[in-house]
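U., I forgot to send this yesterday:
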Amino acid sequence: MTASATPVLDVRDLKISYRQADTHTTVVHGVAFTVEPGEVVALVGESGSGKTSTAQAVIGLLAENGRIESGAILLNGEDISRWNARRLRDIRGAVVSLVPQDPGSSLNPVATIGSQVREILEIHGRLSRRDADRKVIELLNHVGLSEPELRMRQYPHELSGGMKQRVLIAIAIALRPALIIADEPTSALDVTVQRRILDLIDDLRREYGTAVLLVTHDLGVAADRSDRIIVLQGGRIQEQGKTAEVLAAPQSAYTRKLLSDAPSLAAIRPRPKIEPGRGAAVTVNKLVQDFPLPNGRNFRAVDGISFTVARGTTHAVVGESGCGKTTTIRALAGFQKPTGGDIHIGDFDVGSLRARELRQFRRTVQLVYQNPWASLDPRQTVQAIVGEPLLNFEPVSRQERESRVRAIVERVGLPLTTLSRLPHALSGGQRQRVAIARALILEPEVVVLDEAVSALDVTVQAQILDLLAALQRDLSLTYIFVSHDLAVVRQIADTVSVLHNGKQVDYGTVEQVFSSASSAYTRELIEAIPGNRFPRAGGARHAISAGPTS
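Result:
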């Protein structure tokens, strides 16, 4: 892309700090880059890299304890870095706008969609109420929302996540700003919804000539969607340049590490072939799960799902929100009695278990949940958290309990010094290792991993996946891996079930499903994996075939 005389955004030697008590800690150290008209520049990095602070500074939305120490932020050639709040409000929406990360918390729950889109027009005094309403309908239609007149009257809770994100994009483009900052705009969305939102931003960029600063931790998204890429670590730029050049031949060790750890870009790791006659650890046969509705009817959340998991292997259950994944694993774990069908895990017929048998069954199947911040008791030490299942299921002496806790904590790669710490003193990756240790302390046969790496940065995610693979190899564990991320599934799973609207639309080995999916839905999921458009790290691209398209 040919650079113009004046970039839309020109960040020069930017330094940002945050105040804690009486000290200021610098988190962004001399960052400098430009964004040209109509260009997409990706700001990439993990948690704590400084990417969000940089983006917030550009639009004047730093937290109260944050401040720009030095440097300049030129928007259309004018330095806004020292502007007061009133002057910054005047340009938000009109010159620079923001598409925030979480559509669920970014819209006012007690205001209609129409009033929230209209607000940006009224703030800048551009239109009468009647003309504003007409413009709102036009904007909602433009971002692909069906029945825009109806959507105007609805509240956020009546819309899906993807629909809410489209509303936020409508607000962002309402006044055709020169620059849109998209801060992790799709991280909370399913993969096909993510692709549609990114396509929408791209279409609007081409139509209006708007520049986009794309803030993301997902290198696959950056690879597919950006012209240039800036890699941040610890508040410093590690490298920047044209996306194709940086990702094809990264100069910094950190960028190379990010590439090798990104599931959507990394070379596909070979999985050992499943040995015939290994025996089934889990057998699900025609599982049906209904839930009663207020009108006296039933809602069928799971409709006739069947699969078998060989001992010591990993079976992935994948699909988007509402597909039946969570309902399926709750039945597997014995939390709800199936309406129909059979589930056998080891020697247990799960659907027919009585209370005493169910307690024993809980030792056989353990769960690791998605969010390590929410799944650990904040008041307990790591020692107490990991040891608690032994108190509940297998009373042993205190000395033996402490010995077993130390052993499993070391096995999951945590130093013994963490035993006395509370969860808030641990990183996200360390917390998930604690959750895994807690699940393994009872020596289960089957571990259900419910989106167990989706909340983690890419390098931490890779470390946890490596840990899970090592534990499976050493302890002969069987995993049920629940995920919406097919890039991760491709790396870790042996077999896979793809669910859609409660039905199993594809089932087989990962290689079979990825190379010759039988359903159009699965092919759409595979095609929507970020990074599909880009060559894989470490050599020639590994082709991902989604099978026939018709």
